[in-house]
Amino acid sequence: MPRMIFVNLPVADVARSTAFYEAIGFKKNQQFSNEQASSMMWSDTIFVMLLSKPFFATFTSKEIADAHAVTTGHFALSFDSRGDVDAISEAAVAAGGKELHGPEDMGFMYSRAFEDLDGHAFGPFWMDPAIAEQGPPEHQPIAN
After folding, report:
1. 1-59 CATH pick, 3.30.428.10, 3.30.460.80, 3.40.630.10, 3.10.180.10
2. Domain residue spans in the chain?
3. Which residue among 36, 47, 127, 130 is buried most deeply as judged by most CB within 10 Å?
4. What is the DSSP secondary-structure string of 24-78?
5. Distance, CA of 136 to chain centre
6. What is 72-138's CATH number?
7. Boundaries of each VOC domain copy (predicted)?
């Protein structure tokens, strides 16, 4: 079995969040979805689990953070082109998300950032494949 990652996110409205993630290109896995959770496929090995806040609370004894008020993480998503970065960012805003920063072009890397409906931050980026193999230039800060 390949290694997989399931990012569990607490959401206020599972159906509304599911529609948002579908609008930005994720696919819903019906087999692992119901009224309290949606399994959203990014790839064959990467999933975002949208969990209602009451259901999410069954996984932890900690308070669930309000991602609109505090940073809970920033999930970077790689893309094959600058155009793909723009497309998901524009789709996120059109679906009700919030742009955190517009295009940042460092030559070897291009990025944008947005929040989903619940304030979870995503940073789509493209990196020149030749640079990715060698590592970033020493004089360039790594930013997203």
Report:
1. 3.10.180.10
2. 1-59, 72-138
3. 47
4. TT-EEEEEEEETTEEEEESSSSEEEEEEEHHHHGGG-SSPPP-TTTS---EEEEE
5. 23
6. 3.10.180.10
7. 3-127
- State pLDDT tens for residues 39-69: 999 999 999 999 999 999 999 999 999 999 9
Where do the H-state alpha helices sit in 95-134?
129-134
Structure tokens at 99: 């742009």
**Nearest to residue 75, comparing CAs of 131, 27, 116?**
116
Give burial (CB, 10 Å; 0-12/13-18/19+) of 93: middle
Identity at 128, one-letter amino acid code: D
**Is there a common fold for 1-59 and 72-138?**
yes
For 56, phi then psi, to 5°, come to -55, -40
Measure the CA angle with vertex 86, ends 105 and 2; round to 5°: 100
Q: What is the pLDDT of residues 104-125, one digit of tens each?
A: 998 889 999 999 999 999 999 9
